[in-house]
Amino acid sequence: MIKVGDQLPATTLMEYIEVEGNGCSMGPNAVDVHKAAAGKTIALFAVPGAFTPTCSNQHVPGYVAQADALKAAGVDEIWCLSVNDAFVMGAWARDQKTANKVRMLADGDAAFAKATGLTLDLNGKGLGLRSNRYSMLVKDGKVASLNVEAPGKFEVSDAATMLGQLKA
To answer: Which of 30, 52, 88, 138 counts the most CB atoms within 10 A of its CB?
Structure first.
């Protein structure tokens, strides 16, 4: 399992952006993890699935609500990762109103989750291989803190915990 001090894995995530920006930005667009994290402080959190109850009712809304405070505490970007495709993550972003607050990044084939060792096997529940619920503070591509939830829990990966770690 990835640990504090480790480099993020050399993987590619996907992002769907609904609003056209410079060039052809809509997507889905490939996001090279190493390039995207270089020189930045990132509050990254991962969830088992888009549109699932805890993820939609608590996890993402907490980071959206705390986005300004996290950025004031030194975070450049907030990333939400889930083992879903970019189109689902784009629809979830619209539903959760994450624009300009949280980047909703798809780990469609669980490559990031597998590379970090933070997978969650939900095959018996019809969900397949997913990401565990966790958060990490990433500085210039290296893990500065890591908060992995126990199965079925939501106690240490929330935005308030991340904000507290940033202020400590």
So the answer is: 138
